[in-house]
Specification:
The protein has 10 helices and 6 strands. The chain is α/β, with parallel strands linked by helices. It has one domain: HUPs (Rossmann fold). The strands form 2 sheets. Strands 1-4-6-5 form a 4-stranded mixed sheet. A two-stranded parallel sheet has the order 2-3.
Length: 234
């Protein structure tokens, strides 16, 4: 794949998005780890952004990345509301996989506002926007491709996604998109991946403390509300 570089030695985002359809055709028949290898062989690493929530299914993508580009930065959005178990799990995966993890968070005054205002009670969307979406938006401006561990089986919003999704300012890449729950479990078992400690307690999907309850799938996220996504992947 040939990418025309700009005068600043960066592939222009408008050119990258033109490749989306052809990229999907090329990557559809590959295994998730093969997709990662091909991506890093085809695009400059500096253009590729990787984020992880270090949630209950995060270890699979992070393990694959550790085999392909262990030194590549992985951004963790520190909302300051994570379970302590998630922080400990993140540190465990960093040590075991040799990951290069960089924490990002909202600006102090904005984070402080959500604490003093108890924004997670009053306006879930605003709290997520301040503590998750805004910090990631600042990163998006510096990258062309965004690797995410979303999978179709997780909820209805993700069912119709494609491996490459063209967004206004970035191209989303979902190497694990078509993995089934059984395939994720099998990969984890074969590779003896660490399990998030809250999974065994009945938390199948883990986010911030205030907005996460026990439940199957993503049913415990923003339970008893109409909210199903934090806003990062919409």
């Amino acid at each position: 794949m040939v990418i025309t570089k700009s005068s600043g030695d960066r592939p222009p985002k408008e050119n990258m998005t033109c490749f989306t359809d052809s990229l999907n055709k090329r990557y559809e028949g590959l295994q998730p780890w093969e997709r990662l290898e091909l991506l890093f062989d085809s695009f400059p690493s500096r253009e590729i952004m990787v984020t992880s929530s270090f949630g209950t299914s995060s270890a699979v993508l992070l393990h694959m990345l550790s085999k392909v580009r262990p030194e590549h930065p992985v951004y963790f959005v520190d909302t300051t509301y994570h379970f302590q178990e998630t922080v400990e799990y993140k540190n465990q995966l960093i040590r075991q996989f040799g990951l290069n993890v960089i924490d990002i968070k909202a600006r102090p005054n904005r984070s402080r506002f959500t604490k003093e205002n108890h924004t997670w009670k009053l306006n879930h969307d605003l709290c997520c926007f301040i503590n998750k979406v805004q910090p990631v938006n600042e990163l998006r401006e510096k990258h062309t491709l965004w690797i995410s561990g979303l999978m179709k089986y997780q909820n209805a919003n993700r069912h119709n996604l494609r491996i490459f999704e063209k967004k206004p300012d970035i191209v989303k890449f979902h190497p694990m998109l078509d993995m089934t729950r059984e395939e994720v479990e099998l990969y984890s078992y074969i590779n003896d991946l660490p399990v998030h400690p809250l999974l065994e307690q009945g938390y199948n999907s883990v986010g911030c403390v205030h907005c996460t309850a026990k439940g199957e799938g993503r049913a415990g996220r923003w339970a008893n509300t109409s909210k199903v996504e934090c806003g990062l992947h919409l």
